[in-house]
Amino acid sequence: MGIKDMKYLKTIVFLCILTFTVSCGQQKKYVQYQLKEGETMGLIAQRLAMKTADLLRLNPDVGSNPGADTRIVIPNKKQNNRATSRGDASKSKEEFIEADAAETLLVSESEKNRAATIETLEKEFQIHEVLKGETIYSLSRYYKITEAALRALNPSVAAGLKLGQLLKIKRVAIKLDKDEKLYKDVIDADVFLKVAIMLPFRAQELDTLSSNAIFGNSKLANIVTDLYLGAEFAIDSLRKQGVAIALTVFDTERNGTKIQEILAKNDLNAQDIIIGPLYSEEVQIVSDAVDTPIILPVYSKKQAAFNAGIVIKTTPSKALFRAELLRYIEGNFVAGNIIIVGDNSLASRENSLKIRQVLALQDSIVGVHLITPEAGYIKKEKFMEVALPNAKNVVVLTTDDDVIVASTFNSLISLPKDTAATVFTFDKASAINKIDNTRLAQVGFTFVTEEYGTLEALKTTAFDKKYAAKNGALPSSYATRGFDITYDVLMRLASGESLKKTFKEGASYRVESKFDYTDKAADYKQNKGLFIVKYNPDLTLTRIK
Q: Which residues belong to the signal peptide in this entry (predicted)?
């Protein structure tokens, strides 16, 4: 073979290699994928982070509702060459394409889950991804924080840092919701507030009992005492800021006769605000007799019936809890698969029906399923029938039955690795409190709450220290609630304006509570301040809304 022939041969070989390379590149740009049972075009598009309309344009002959085993064309987002090993030599071209497509979907879902975790954490923290060679010491120096602070925010670092691990560095300022107005505290130097507190201390009845007998057996005594101590601490705090406050305390003794006696002997209309009574029937009696604003300090199932304009409901109704959760799911779970877990009680059936009706109207929701117990608990097989692999399975609890809740978590944790689920509830009932935090974190348990405070929060820490210094113990949730309610309403009155005017001016955040009375439909008398909180893998909590 001459030199001329060799040149021709080299040219032919080069063109063959070039053609093969271009062909492989084209194969890599788009791959085929075979739909599995329950998968839809919308679900596949969501996994690939693309619009459903774009996926449909790639598959004009498929239609919007293809059945199982239908082959579709999808983009290959890996964009990296695959080397064929000897063990793969027996695979057909079609098998390679399907394997590549499946891997593309799995990688996409994994990346999106990590991105979602980062997005959630960044709502409350500055985040750092651990790089090779970094240590707790080097990170604390770089971010100018103490090692103790870094460890407090990230308990998992006790086992050592891992490459790619996400660390919380410091808290960021609260991000307000769109269009949310924040009330600005202002104190009028000339203001003088007259405050009445009406609580069932039952002082005369309990006078002869020891402290152990009173507080060891009476949950009510603990609640009332803690509410009062929190309120008293708020008043002391405001006095130190220059607010003149005259406080009158009434013991309602838990009977209607005592309430009538207090009303007959005292001019409560001379007060600027009344905190209490605790019981709904007593609130009704007082609201019928006075014109002074009445602060309802705890939630009452009957509070919706308080139509009197002077009764201010500091705790959101359960309907508001449910509505808040539905808004979050609608806005954050495009192509989500919803599974509602309820029981046969009237309340659970009503909540399940309302949730199902609302979510079923959303085009972006893949499906809405209702699961109820058999023989008193939920079998794993029930979830296997409706949960989708590699999809956003959202489980919403509308039950507070201990057995049903426990069996739900047990079933979800034991699902196959490719079938994960996140659990939500709008009412964190006692049944949830009996579930181990590790299990709650495994399913990213997310709930709606009217109180949110963490041990690391500066505001919470400062309050706890000051309260403990005065009362010799850390505050209970009722003490903190008593402080927040009292401080918020008195701070607003300290401005010299009417409560209604300050309510219109915006929401306020206190130690653990948010107070938002801006709802005109409720005549500015119903607090709608709520948080949505999620359990993280390291067992910490993050506010996601």
A: none
Note the pLDDT tens digit of each residue in 244-268: 999 999 999 877 689 999 999 999 9
In total, how many domains does the chain have? 4
Contacts of 129 (CB under 8 A, 6+ apart): 164, 165, 166, 167
Q: Can you list the alpha helix ranges (DSSP code H) found in 87-202?
A: 93-122, 136-143, 147-153
Answer whether the bond into residue 316 is a cis peptide, omega within 30°. Answer: no
Is residue 204 located within the same domain as residue 277? yes
CA-wise closest residue to 348 among 427, 255, 273, 263? 427
303 shares a domain with 198: yes
Where residue 116 falls among pLDDT bands split at 50, 70, 90? Answer: low
For residue 193, the SS3 value is strand
d(CA 47, CA 101): 12
Q: What are phi and psi of 352, to 5 degrees?
A: -60, -45
With contact defined as beta carbons under 8 Å apart, do 105 and 48 qualify? yes
Give the span between the Cα atoms of 320 and 87, in whole angstroms: 59
Q: Per residue in 133-172, pLDDT tens?
A: 889 988 988 888 888 888 888 888 888 898 888 888 887 7
Structural domain that includes position 142: 125-171
pLDDT of residue 505: 94
Q: Which H helix or E strand runs over 314?
A: none
330 shares a domain with 229: no
